[in-house]
Write a structure and sequence with these properties.
223 residues
Length: 223
């Protein structure tokens, strides 16, 4: 007991700092690494994205319990959720809100009977032009949010689904890499309580294909 007391006296400042940092990461903000390409070209493999855990709820630290709600996800938001169906934490874009009727045909979305607008993306970088030469980059107008999507040269089985209505308290989410994303087309609708935060920026990024060198151009890039 004396050793514990002595340790506390000598290190209490450090212990308090570590405790506060853990609480902050648990309930306020954290970063999340992205090991897959399901959100390309918006989020690259190797990106570390900033997660705002207070975007929608104030949660009890070290739990998923919401103490009170601040807001609900909006169409176009990039959300992080702890998926029970996938048994993993995933990052996807909100496409369908509760009550929406959503359909997809040949990777073209229709929401509540209105087909979304698409046009050729103009902001592809030289690197993207090389790595995506066999794929198609488009800009999708999702309500007030214009964002890029990536399509495979040949449509996959994920390119079509019949009209579905999003249940109350749930969301339909998709990856921006439309032919290579295990999203609501695979795991179903996402319950509101599984959504833990919103992503808005890339903190830093490592290029896994180039000796894990940092991609300085992606540091603090907006999503």
């Amino acid at each position: 007991m004396n050793k514990i007391k002595q340790f506390w006296r000598n290190n209490r400042g450090f212990v308090v700092f570590i405790g506060l940092m853990l609480v902050f990461r648990s309930a306020v903000a954290d970063w999340n690494d992205v090991p897959s390409g399901s959100m390309q070209p918006t989020i690259e493999i190797g990106d570390r994205i900033l997660v705002n855990k207070m975007a929608y709820d104030v949660r009890l630290p070290f739990s998923t319990v919401s103490l009170f709600k601040l807001a609900d996800p909006k169409r176009g938001d990039i959300v992080i959720f702890a998926s029970e169906a996938a048994e993993n934490r995933l990052v996807k874009r909100v496409v369908g809100m509760p009550g929406d009727v959503v359909a997809m045909r040949q990777n073209v979305l229709t929401i509540n009977g209105r087909q979304l607008a698409y046009h050729q993306a103009e902001e592809a970088t030289e690197k993207q032009a090389v790595t995506l030469s066999s794929e198609v980059l488009l800009t999708e107008q999702l309500g007030s949010v214009a964002h890029p999507v990536k399509l495979a040269p040949l449509s996959s089985v994920l390119a079509d689904f019949a009209p579905v209505q999003v249940p109350a308290g749930h969301y339909l989410v998709l990856g921006d890499n439309r032919d290579n994303s295990a999203d609501s087309r695979v795991i179903g609708f996402v319950p509101r309580h599984e959504i833990v935060g919103r992503a808005g920026k890339v903190l830093f990024s490592l290029d896994y294909d180039n000796y894990y060198l940092p991609r300085s151009e992606r540091f603090l890039a907006s999503l």
